Amino acid sequence: MRGTLELTERTINTGEGADLVARHKRLDLRTIFVSGLTLVSRVLGFVREILSAILFGDHSAVFDAFITAWRVPNLFRRFLGEGAISTSFQTALSDVEGRQGEQAGGIFFRSTIRALFALLVVVCLLTMALILVLPDQMPITGWHWLGADPEPVRDLAFRVMPFVVFICLAAVASAALHVRGRFAAPALGPVVLNLVWIGTLVWIGAHFGWCIDEGDFVRHQEMARTLAWGVLLAGAAQLALLLPALGREGLLNRGSVGPRAAGRPSAPGVGLVLRRAAPLAFGAAVYQINVMVDGFMAEGLLEDGGPTVHYYANRVQQFPLALVAIAATSAVFPALQAHGQKGDLVSLRRLHDQTQRTVAFFAIPAGIGLAVLAKPILSVSFEHGAFGPEGVERASGALIWLALALLPAGATGLVAKAFYSLGDFRTPVRISALVLALNVGLNTLFLVGWDMDVDGLAMATAITSWIGLALMLPTFYSRQGMPQGPPGALGSLLRTALAAAASGGAALWVLGPASEAFSPLLGLLLAMGSGLGAHLGVAFLLGSPELKQVLRARAGRRS
């Protein structure tokens, strides 16, 4: 110990320790900066939805059409850009630059961008042509899948489809910058996208008015078309923001290359990226197809406003899901991959289970909070301008069911990544496809057979989310060679559930008096704060290991 202290003192005195401390400070500041930008982007995305609700309201057939149309490029965005191809490309680029240097990496990046651009243009043109020629009614069933008036859906889907070109190229460019250790521009990109989108909505409000009658179909159609142009501009702005950083890294430079990079065509590497990305893409696509099917069923089977209020309820649910479950899954995935590649199933199981319990520690109270505070959250967030109390009532029923899906949605995403880390892509895709088929069946039963509203779609989502988790988690644990998990899982979940129940009770107890004494917003904030305090307090009294782990992690970061 004494020798270690002497060595540390000598290192600091010679300047090496000071440099190490300075590098750690820069890394920590960069992490805080990037995390802050991510949170800002999430908040701006929520502001974007609030402005949309003010402008279009909760019964606009045109905005229903816009939401339905937007799901088409969003599907291809997940399928071809973010997640699958960007992750595969990032791995391949790291390998190329590790073996051949940054000049070869630049060649590989440019060839990938050219190939992806050509693929995206072809996909975009084919999809736009398909949008124009598909029938208004589904064969055999006679289902009006585009609603009673399909033309706005076709028109707006045709207009927003090129967004997928900008956003997928931006995803791959961001992956390349991450490999080079540049995180600011990729993190700033979504912020710029949301700012441009918000700016478009503000311009629409200033030009057309902030409270247009929902029956004014022509005016709403012009507003939606303007918004479609703003969406394309936002995608182009996000891509353009990355160009200076790409130039500084030499990734756009076509100049001479070194002898190791010369004569090294990267076209085969591009094919490898696409092949590696295919399983991840199909896995992500199953979920996105599920979301898109929900949207089209809402458009075709529900009254005006159904797709809109279903979309807003989903957006509220996605906020805690992204901040907790998706963030945790993304953070541990590299470590899961490392354990899987080494065949270290003990460490992989331990990390997976520990992360699941940490996610549950936050997701369970978040789900209970969304359920008990659904109506005030939606009212405070969206009941402004053209969005009325009827829309809040419809959306709150859906949000209560979606709140019940928060935990299984996050847990399923994590266990799917654990499968991927073991090289097993088929199992999650097969289970997801089964869940997709079941979800379509339940949607049909609830909306057509039982004549339910938006809450029927959300109820089907909650049921199938739990079924998907019930199928996927035991399958993962029963894999050959998978060791037993650490003890205490059931007791830990019980402590979390008791603390979460206390948080829900505290939030409800504070909400009524606080809302009467103060404004609805302040009353809601006090209720949420009370719920959080009750959860942490009860978890502390029960000796929750997840709370101790979080506190230790924060103490470690401070030290």
Protein described:
This protein is an all-alpha fold and about 550 residues long. It has a domain at about 30-250 and about 265-280. It has 20 helices and no strands. It has helices spanning about 1-15, 15-55, 60-80, 85-100, 100-135, 150-160, 165-180, 185-210, 215-250, 265-300, 305-340, 345-370, 375-380, 390-405, 405-420, 425-450, 455-475, 490-515, 520-540, 545-559. Helix 10 (about 265-300) packs parallel to helix 16 (about 425-450) and helix 12 (about 345-370) packs antiparallel against helix 14. The chain is globular and about 60 Å long.
The biggest sheet amounts to: none
Mean pLDDT: 81
Rg (CA only): 25 Å
Share of helix, binned: over 70%
Which key features would you list for this structure?
single chain; 559 residues; mainly alpha; 20 helices; 82% helix; disordered N terminus
In brief:
This protein has 559 residues and is mainly α. Helix content is 82%, strand content 0%. The chain is globular, with a radius of gyration of 25 Å.
Topology:
Blueprint: H1 2-13, H2 16-56, H3 61-81, H4 84-100, H5 102-133, H6 151-160, H7 163-179, H8 184-208, H9 217-248, H10 267-301, H11 306-342, H12 345-372, H13 374-382, H14 389-404, H15 406-421, H16 426-449, H17 454-477, H18 489-517, H19 520-541, H20 545-558
Helix pairs in contact: 1-2, 2-8, 2-11, 3-6, 3-7, 3-9, 3-10, 3-11, 4-5, 4-7, 4-10, 5-7, 6-9, 7-9, 8-9, 10-11, 10-16, 11-12, 11-14, 11-15, 11-17, 12-14, 12-15, 12-18, 13-14, 14-17, 15-17, 16-17, 18-19
